[in-house]
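Input (structure):
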């Protein structure tokens, strides 16, 4: 076990985590970032980020991730690629266990993000980024003039379909029920969109295409009939799964499993903060994650 007590331990090296690391490092706090896979989180998985200010041509998500990591390390933040396996968060000194060690810190920032809920179909993971997308506002522009399918019936699916209808030739919504769960405010605009069709009581059956999506096979759950919808893009909008299993027994979560923390990012446990997509919030984007990281640092710094 390492005997150093870090000022701040950050769990998750996405944009939220690395911004907290940058601000805390710049405030002369000792900072350890523990990241399971690779810096960047979800952001690192997308080719082009167009809606993060400062990059007029957009920027590759992985490249932006590397820059965020370097920015934080410039102020002394240390990154270790280790999976956090358990947390002991009560008291003034917190213990963080990982796949290869144990660390202690005075403050912990939970920046574990969220993962889009998958359809669970064959080839879905291989075709992610090659036609399968979980973020219409991020990837929609790559499908300009093309035919796409949106899977889901909630607010995200409705908003995605409206957004895509302005870019795409045709948008087909696949919904497993006979009415949308989305707020009524979406219904009229959707009905007015000439290029949006809704297939009710319909379930996705198979993603078509070898190296890139060429269509989606769907099945009507009442009649059992199947049909293939030709499309270049499948936008999955059936919800997100926050990565909170690690601390669900100690940190208060909302009804959807996100950390209950307001914009101060403070959780129910003193010295424990939640930033980015893992926190309850209305918009999950890079720019809102980095804002949270700065906010957490503000409250950590004032406690030191
Ligand atoms: C395909 C795609 C495209 C997107 N495009 C855009 C876009 O163009 N513009 C935009 O603003 N937003 C975009 N987003 C959304 C944006 O990426 C997220 O809002 C943002 O990354 C959230 O940052 P975060 O730091 O909260 O969490 P994440 O990015 O989810 O990072 C969390 C990190 O925590 C790590 N982690 C989780 N559990 C553990 C553990 N136990 N131990 C150690 N590490 C752990 C994960 O490996 C991950 O690296 C996109 C998302 C996706 C999926």
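Output (sequence):
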């Amino acid at each position: 076990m390492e005997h150093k007590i870090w000022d701040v331990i950050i769990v998750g090296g996405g944009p939220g985590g690395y911004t907290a690391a940058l601000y805390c490092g710049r405030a002369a706090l000792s900072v350890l970032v523990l990241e399971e896979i690779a810096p960047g989180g979800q952001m690192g998985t997308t080719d082009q980020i167009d809606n993060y200010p400062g990059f007029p041509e957009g920027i590759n998500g992985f490249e932006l991730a590397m820059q965020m990591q370097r920015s934080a390390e410039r102020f002394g933040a240390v990154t270790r690629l280790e999976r956090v396996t358990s947390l002991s968060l009560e008291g003034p000194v917190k213990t963080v266990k990982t796949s290869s060690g144990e660390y202690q810190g005075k403050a912990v920032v939970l920046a574990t993000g969220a993962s889009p809920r998958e359809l669970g179909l064959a080839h879905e993971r291989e075709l992610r980024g090659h036609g399968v997308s979980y973020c219409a506002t991020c990837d929609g522009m790559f499908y300009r003039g093309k035919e796409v399918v949106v899977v889901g019936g909630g607010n995200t699916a409705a908003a995605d379909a409206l957004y895509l209808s302005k870019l795409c030739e045709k948008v087909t919504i696949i919904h497993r029920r006979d009415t949308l769960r989305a707020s009524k405010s979406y219904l009229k605009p959707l009905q007015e969109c000439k290029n949006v069709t809704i297939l009710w009581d319909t379930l996705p059956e198979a993603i078509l295409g070898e190296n890139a999506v060429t269509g989606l096979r769907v099945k009507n759950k009442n009649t059992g009939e199947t049909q293939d919808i030709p499309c270049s893009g499948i936008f999955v909008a059936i919800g997100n799964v926050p990565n909170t299993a690690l601390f669900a027994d100690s940190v208060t979560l909302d009804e959807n499993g996100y950390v209950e923390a307001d914009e101060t990012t403070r959780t129910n446990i003193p010295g424990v903060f939640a930033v980015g997509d893992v926190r309850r919030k209305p918009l999950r984007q890079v720019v809102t994650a980095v804002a949270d990281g700065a906010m957490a640092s503000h409250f950590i710094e004032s406690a030191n």
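Notes: The pocket of flavin-adenine dinucleotide is lined by residues 11-17, 34-37, 41-43, 45-46, 49-52, 83-84, 111-114, 116, 134-135, 138, 243, 246, 276-278, 284-287, 289 (CB under 6 Å). The mean pLDDT is 95.
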